[in-house]
Amino acid sequence: xxxxxxxxxxxxxxxxxxxxxxxxxxxxxxxxxxxxxxxxxxxxxxxxxxxxxxxxxxxxxxxxxxxxxxxxxxxxxxxxxxxxxxxxxxxxxxxxxxxxxxxxxxxxxxxxxxxxxxxxxxxxxxxxxxxxxxxxxxxxxxxxxxxxxxxxxxxxxxxxxxxxxxxxxxxxxxxxxxxxxxxxxxxxxxxxxxxxxxxxxxxxxxxxxxxxxxxxxxxxxxxxxxxxxxxxxxxxxxxxxxxxxxxxxxxxxxxxxxxxxxxxxxxxxxxxxxxxxxxxxxxxxxxxxxxxxxxxxxxxxxxxxxxxxxxxxxxxxxxxxxxxxxxxxxxxxxxxxxxxxxxxxxxxxxxxxxxxxxxxxxxxxxxxxxxxxxxxxxxxxxxxxxxxxxxxxxxxxxxxxxxxxxxxxxxxxxxxxxxxxxxxxxxxxxxxxxxxxxxxxxxxxxxxxxxxxxxxxxxxxxxxxxxxxxxxxxxxxxxxxxxxxxxxxxxxxxxxxxxxxx
Length: 502
Fold this sequence. Notes:
Helix content: under 10%
Strand content: over 45%
Keywords: Signal
Signal peptide: 1-21
CATH architecture of the largest domain: 6 Propeller
InterPro entries: 6-blade_b-propeller_TolB-like, WD40
Distance between the termini: 21 Å
CATH topology of the largest domain: Neuraminidase
Shape: elongated
Organism: Rhodothermus marinus
CATH class of the largest domain: Mainly Beta
Family: Belongs to the TolB family.
Radius of gyration: 24 Å
Oligomer: single chain
């Protein structure tokens, strides 16, 4: 039985409709304690500033017909996906010490459960007990020593996935495991030696409640997490939680704020105060997530669905602090993605003569210039900070991949060529790195939908093997615009989840 009491974590709504997580002592979890008989009591410490969990626990094992370990948990119903990065602290005593995610029918020591677990010697597995008091079974991964751990539930099906940070996930699927609709979900640690306490640390801890069956894109929306990522360490931090669809943060060049869109309006989110205010854009109140800041931070380009143009997306510019928008593109649909470093040109994706290509137009207005003409979708154009290249994504090779070209459309180079569908390349301010969004191969190459498992990946500006810097649930609205911080080390993005269920 669990030995320590319940600690509550309240998730409240403000009058503005923003679901601000009033995180308690256990972060997103609500209880913790030792399951089964242990000689030394375990503990949990949550660091709210770093958003990191430290677990300490003893216990003889999580195996056989009953278990003994330390567990921090919350109750969930229905479908969900659990994401975290974890590692043991210290050399440890027993090579079979364990830590990871667990989903459990109850807190009894012999309860049915499933976990994704890493042992002290690097062994990774999906382990499970089908019935109370029954034997433990396992499905081992070929990969040793992963630190990225995920566990997803779809009905009575569980999908465990692991990776070494920077690499894609590999997965195993277990079907027919009935744990009941309401389960205990959380992180655990077991020393595999009841005379000692072992420790582990977990960061990037996320519980995702995904889009339900029957949801309708662009009508039904999940909640949003506004996050900041350190691309060197992979450490993520949630800045803001919204019950609505918050999308596509820009980072202002002065480093003081993020600009995102929500419900057709643009908001400025002050990093110092974490307060969001509407940027006044006059009649342009149907703005999508293709908005761009000029390199000097003085101007904001908008993609507004103008009623006088049949609801098509038209590009406008407005001072960053707001004002009356000035129309730039004469027709639509036109979706803005880039501003030239000298401030003279905008680059965008536009549908003309039945095909989406990349165009350039003077900021002051004038004739648009077509830069690509390959069949299929070309999208996401963005200038490099030195103005020497325009980076973009194109389906011309059969899958969506990252390309670059000279500003006049010459000198085409393909920079990625892999199994993923890669979108929206963004150049770091120092010009060294490209950050982009990668969909799994099961997504149509010409589509960038909401609410899918996706990666954020990064590679050198001249190309090279990309590495994963974030594993998340998102897609449309996650990284449509350049969101690099001025320090070229941090970037902002949006991930998605429904409101946590009790």
